[in-house]
Amino acid sequence: MAPQKLYAGAKLRDIRTRLGLTQKDFASKLGVSLPYLNQMENNNRPVSTTVVLALAQEFGFDVTELGQGDSERLVSDMREALADPVFAEAAPQLADLRLTASNAPALARAFLTLHRAYRQTHERLASLDEALGREGAQLQPSPWEEVRDFFHYCDNYIDPVDRAAENFAQLKGGESDIRAAAINRLSQSGIAVRKAREAPLRSFDAERQELTLSSLAPLETQTFQLLVQVALLRQNQLLDATLDLARFQSDEARAIAKLGLANYFAGAAMMPYKAFLEAAQDTRHDLELLAARFGASIEQVAHRLSTLQRPGAKGVPFFFVRVDQAGTITKRHSATRLQFARFGGACPLWNVHRAFETPGRFLRQLAETPDGVRYISLARDVSKTGGHFGAPVRRYAIALGCEVRHGAGLVYADDLDFTRASAFEPIGISCRICERTGCHQRSVPPLEKRLSINPSRRDTLPYKLE
Hints:
11 strands
């Protein structure tokens, strides 16, 4: 197979802008002519090997980032947005989307913002009673969506917060583990920690300077919530500075993002970057061994693995997703080319849905997406009890996976046959943008296919795709 050419014009322009260099000076430092640099920045030419080496040697740039920008994510997000029936007569070709994502990423994000506003307006009109009773409703993304996109386009890695958490995890005298460290640091701030059976997972009384945790919560959950409170109190300045850069459109989004950053700090403190990366590599990413070593839950470990994208010290690029029993995605992140549906549920052929049928077990799946990329996917249920009889059980399933080329580093890949094409199950992202014509689980026709209806014949689907 011929090597894939690397077009990274937007990334080159971004690097040059951050360095404060003119095109002429940048071209000189890279050892290329000004016209050649101009063509690369406009994606008329691929980035040459000479430029890649110069970026690493002259500027110390992590060249792996050139091929991991937002381009593929933007293409995936735009394809899904364009699957909206409103675009049925005017959907652009995939090649046009790739050009837009590569050459005009800001325009692509503006389009996604506009479509999101349209979709929310449409939903309000569908619920007319509610819409009429709401005064001053504004066309802006919901706070949850805005925060979700913030983490999505940060690659789910927030460097200042991650490094602060890693520094916090360096235990001081008398601190036996991260839990003791959290209690000690809170005590230094005059805050007492207690447990109560009827308490919520975490409740902080600022007036009494008291933090109350639920005694019914698992130990790893209690530790996590302790660290969340540490982040909110002792890392408040860092969190606010990060939020200032994000420029959220509403106070609600900022508040949600702040809690999200505090949660990020908690996970990174429980599983500090360097130590966790080394342990992940040593155990070949055995989730159970990692959970035992770091006092974390399976879900916490899986989520943390998906954040190991520190420049210069990256781990295996994983995707991570959590779904409920209805198939709704409640958490999602991907450092791989696989991008999840932003609107709706996940592909029903994916093994994450079968995890509910086999509680307590890991399910492995070899899968292939319509673009021909092959993955190994690991799924397991992570149902959460209420801690006592009669309490409601929250049922979720998680999936963690990566491209099969990283399979040698996963204990879960042992004895799987990557050479047999029939071993890979066909999965997609969303029926609206999935091009497979023979899927027996298809719910709606794909946007880019014509339908043929034969009233004299009925197969699995009531139509044929052309």
